[in-house]
Amino acid sequence: MAAPKKGRRQSAPGKPGRSLVFILIALVALTGGMFLSGNTTPRLGIDLAGGTSITLQAKNEPGQKNAINPTNMNTAVSIINNRVNGLGVSEAEVQTQGADNIIVNIPKGTNEKQAREQVGTTAQLYFRPVLAVAPGEPTPEPSASSSGKGTDKDKDKATEKGEDKATSSSTPTATPTSQGRAVTDGLKADATPSPKSSDKGGDKDKAAPTPTPSTDPATAALQKKFTALDCTDKAQRGKVGDGIKPSEQTIACGKNNAGQWEKYVLGPAELNGKDVDDAKATINQQSGAWVVNMDFTGGGSKKFAKTTSKLSQQQSPMNQFAIVLDGEVASAPSVGTTLSANAEISGSFTQESAQDLANILSYGALPLTFHEQSVTTVSPALGGEQLHAGLIAGAIGLALVIIYLVVYYRGLSLIAIASLLVSAALTYALMTLLGPAIQFTLNLPAVCGAIVAIGITADSFIVFFERVRDEVREGRTLRPAVERAWPRARRTILVSDFVSFLAAAVLFVVTVGKVQGFAFTLGLTTLLDVVVVFFFTKPLMTLMARKPFFANGHKWSGLDPKRLGAKPPLRRTRRTTAPVDPKEA
């Protein structure tokens, strides 16, 4: 007797209950996390929630020719985009307008104000040696004795008084005029206060006097500006360094540790922002305060070591170097030994201000100077109308899909609708949680991506249902039909979803702005489609196949053999074995 022909190997039923419990736990966990985080709605983009639109106008600095060109404008757009997204303001729009304007649209959110403060910040960073320092108010007119009519003894006394005044706020870790808002890596261990002749009572002729504007190499015009400068006046602070090249001496303002303004005469820049390789906001393990750590490039380390070597041999305040950011002294620590490799900016930083500075330094300086031309508030009214229309379109599309499923698949449509609801719940929870996690914002293109995903998810159900129906048409009962149909349907679903995900990934990489929102949402929902089909739809179908309503092929189950064209004789013929001849037996 011939051995029976082996059929195609069918998939094992497995334990569908475990998969359903897994998807239920995941859904409960995501929903619970959403409520525990306090965010029950996704973050909305500027087109849906409104926000701020900033117009920046590029300006040529003195001595610059043809600096406003497409290359520099595009570079500025890239840097500003990195800054606002580095702050977590996702979906921000940064684009050029005309030859010299940049438009920045920032969605409404917790970081909106912080981003606005940084979009036009030039972030020109220089390390300059300190030549002289004085209180921030205008210096009084020199008296007759100080103008040259007094004796040398009077001048020595004046010098000593100025030095004592500066030393009144000295600390063990910085020179008397150090601001305390920033220190250099290793400075706390290596920096030492400059020797003071008044403290030691030694020969005053051997001690180098503190430099003043009249004794440093600055020009008479620079000295005049330094004397008249009032650092408490915001308007004067904004113009103090205009037109000064990095290779020239300059004057600048900065706050000391007590929050009081001081003014400086600074030498030519020794390093600039391009010598900084990276900057990060961290917490100092010893002080527990927020600091900004800067790592220098190879060339920057050499320059920094050379500069600190020279400064460490000078008297105060000429042993200080000023960290100048956009014309303002961020800090002016003293140097007692040669330093290299990296620096630490610390002091009265909050977490937000430390991250601001690190973010600016990391992404570099803008190639142009920008002035804020206008700031307008974007209303969400237009976006709300578009969203309303989009949601209506989505609801109509979903309704048509459900009607089609009910009419064509009947009882099977319950499984499809339940799967769609689970997919929608997972998508909503993830979008809500991804807002604070990766700063994902929901805009109109993202809504379109979610609507498109309805068709992708429904397509997976249809593929599976049709494979099951094909097996029923061949005369098999429902439970074996489900297990035999699944391997073929699974391959088709994976290939289809892979193509969709690949398209979304490519679109996300090669595009910018709102289109990325569409691509991200499409990719996310495609991945969720695989999860839902594998862990919900298939296990639920396996359980339903055990119910008499589906197993017996009820006419409203969607699996009626007669309606599907499966003839009972064909089914009985398949189950009947060939008769055995008694003689052969």
TL;DR?
The chain is α+β, with helices and mostly antiparallel strands and 585 residues long. It is built from 20 helices and 13 strands.
How would you characterize this protein structure?
By secondary structure, this protein is an alpha+beta fold. The chain is 49% helix and 15% strand. A hairpin with a 5-residue loop joins β5 and β6. The longest helix is centred in the last third of the chain and has 33 residues, at 478-510. It is elongated. It starts with 15 loop residues before the first helix and ends in a 10-residue tail after the last helix. Residues 1-12, 144-214 and 569-573 have low confidence and may be disordered.
Number of strands: 13
Assembly level:
single chain
Lateral strand order in the biggest sheet: 4-6-5-11-10
Structural class: alpha+beta
State the shape. Answer: elongated
Strand-residue fraction?
Answer: 5-15%
Question: What is the average per-residue confidence, as pLDDT, rounded to a whole number?
Answer: 75
Which stretches of 5+ consecutive residues score pLDDT under 50? 1-12, 144-214, 569-573
- Share of helix among residues? 40-55%
Q: How far do the termini sit from each other?
A: 9 Å
The main β sheet shows up as: 5 strands, mixed, barrel
| Separate helix tally | 20
**Radius of gyration, in angstroms, nearest whole number:** 37 Å
